[in-house]
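Ticket reopened. Same input as before:
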Amino acid sequence: MTARLLDGTALSQQMRGQIAQRAAQLAERGTRPGLAVILVGDDPASQVYVRNKVKACGEAGFHSVLERYDASLGEAELLARIEALNADPAIHGILVQTPLPKHINPQKVIATIATHKDVDGYSVLSGGELLTGLPGLRPCTPYGCMKLIESIDYDLRGKHAVVIGRSNTVGKPMALLLLQANATVTICHSATPDLARHTREADVIVAAVGRRNTVTREMVKPGVVVVDVGMNRNDAGKLCGDVDFEGVSQVASAITPVPGGVGPMTITMLLSNTLQAAELAAG
Ligand SMILES: NC(=O)C1=CN([C@@H]2O[C@H](COP(=O)(O)OP(=O)(O)OC[C@H]3O[C@@H](n4cnc5c(N)ncnc54)[C@H](OP(=O)(O)O)[C@@H]3O)[C@@H](O)[C@H]2O)C=CC1
Ligand SMILES: Nc1nc(=O)c2c([nH]1)NC[C@@H]1CN(c3ccc(C(=O)N[C@@H](CCC(=O)O)C(=O)O)cc3)C=[N+]21
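Engineering reply: fixed in the latest deploy. New output:
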């Protein structure tokens, strides 16, 4: 069997068209969605991601600002900048790109962003809203993974979903979204002794580890749906995910590519969250 491609580029294009339309309607009522992206330091991957985010904002008709600071920026100065953006009515979403330099505490940064502008969905309140099933801003990457699964009308009810990875930004919220969609969810991590024992039982696998070839063909059952969040480089320097795409795509029923899968959807859901925040602000 050859798997169906869960094409994040195509789904993003479609969704961003709809987002741009809603943004134009909101702009007619006097509110243009606005996103502020803050980048501290010169991590090359982060530079690519923030550029993609700002470009996507422009294409959707959003207002956006990119603030770049030297890695030596003090924590207090960063927090003061965030406070200023909290008070800026033209800004509906604030994103501080991670990783941050070691002298800056990311928890403090997240806690300083006004909750209603936390379009990453990283705040304690957003986490609690997700946990309890209340409406709120969902973390972009897991939210995008759900949209990819929904795009093929796959019904998660009663299915066994295995999430590999338990970070606060990807693995944990991913597991909660799958649970909310009525899947039976297993969360695996670095202390899981026999990963393959779990993945072999899975109807759906979401891999969010950061290590290539974490999921190989022998580890999955035929027909599995595979969502690959990982962003790694192979020996040739090429971008690749956590899943051996070549092997697994021969037995899976659907699989995301890297690049062109979850990555573009993360940015699409960032636009969606920013629009949602702007619509709420406009009343
Ligand atoms: N496409 C996109 O939009 C995005 C991609 N990413 C990518 O996704 C990947 C994961 O990101 P993130 O969650 O932030 O990473 P973290 O490093 O925060 O988390 C990785 C998780 O993987 C677990 N893990 C590590 N080794 C193994 C193993 N051998 N078996 C099972 N689990 C393991 C860790 O377990 P433990 O908790 O025990 O340490 C941890 O929970 C990275 O490649 C990142 O670049 C991230 C965000 C967005
Ligand atoms: N506050 C914060 N919010 C984030 O959402 C956030 C973050 N920090 N830090 C890093 C991770 C990673 N992340 C990606 C976004 C887009 C692509 C993306 O567009 N990927 C393209 C390829 C890009 C390339 O060519 O390198 C693709 O997969 O097709 C990847 C990764 C967001 N993150």
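Residues 140-262 form a domain with the Rossmann fold fold (CATH 3.40.50.720). The chain has a mean pLDDT of 97. Please confirm and we'll close it.
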